[in-house]
Amino acid sequence: MSRPDAYLDPTDIGAKPRQTAARPASLDGKVVTLLDISKGNGNHLLDRIEELLRERARPKAILRKRKPTFARPAPDTLRQEIVRESDVLIEALAD
Is the pLDDT of residue 25 over 70? Predict the structure, then answer.
């Protein structure tokens, strides 16, 4: 069975267990990317998350990114950009 620190990637043929990234103890001084996956109202959820981050933590920066569509994984160029620029990623969806 799956563990809380692992997930199954449904986009991979055969859905192999994957390890999640280590979580930082704090977001202070980190570059946080908020990823809108292009579902309706996701931007409103991310607006509130950004507001809470600014109230409760001291991130170095908060970046906003958006996937072209929720129906497909993020393009490689977007994923590479997020990895290059970010310490932490928060991905949100809503309807």
Answer: yes
